[in-house]
Design a protein that fits this description.
Helices cover 26% and strands 32% of the residues. It is built from two helices and six strands, in the order H-E-E-E-E-E-E-H. It is elongated. 7% of the residues are buried.
C-alpha cells in the first residue's frame, strides 16, 4: 500500500510540474494555442476592442499576452455647435496618438483578451488614405 501511495504522489507531482511548465511557456510566448493570425506586413490594421473603441496602426507582437500597436490613430467625434439635426452634426476626426494631455508615446500595448477582432485595411480604405495624407 505504501508503494502505491508513493507512485500516485509521484504521478500527481509530475503532472503538476508539467502543467506549471506548460503555463509558463505559454505565458512567455514560447508556445501558444489559439494565437492570432499574423497581419500582412506593410499594411494598416484596425483593432476593435471589447469596450467599443477602435484603433488603427501597425500590429505586432501577436505571440505574447499583449499586442503591440504602433503608428496609432483613433477616431474622435467632434460635434458642431449648431442646434438640432442630431447625428448630422457629428464629424469624425482621425487623431494621431501622442498629442493628448498625458503625452503618451506612439505605441499601445493591448491585452489580447480586450481585443474583439482586428482587420487588415486595404489601400483603398478612407482611413488609410487619411493617414497617408496626414503623413505627407
Amino acid at each position: 500500500m505504501r508503494t502505491f501511495l508513493i507512485i500516485i504522489s509521484s504521478v500527481f507531482g509530475a503532472a503538476a510540474a508539467l502543467t506549471v511548465l506548460i503555463w509558463m511557456l505559454a505565458f512567455y510566448g514560447l508556445i501558444g494555442w489559439g494565437d492570432f493570425p499574423a497581419p500582412k506586413e506593410a499594411t494598416w490594421q484596425a483593432v476593435f476592442l471589447t469596450n467599443n473603441q477602435v484603433y488603427f496602426g501597425h500590429l505586432t507582437n501577436l505571440d505574447r499576452g499583449y499586442l503591440l500597436l504602433t503608428n496609432v490613430y483613433y477616431l474622435r467625434v467632434a460635434e458642431n455647435l449648431q442646434q438640432g439635426g442630431g447625428d448630422q452634426n457629428q464629424n469624425l476626426n482621425l487623431v494621431k496618438l501622442g498629442g493628448e494631455l498625458h503625452g503618451p508615446e506612439d505605441a499601445m500595448f493591448i491585452p489580447k483578451d480586450k481585443v474583439q477582432f482586428w482587420e487588415n485595411l486595404s489601400s483603398a480604405s478612407k482611413v488609410v488614405n487619411a493617414i497617408q495624407s496626414s503623413i505627407k
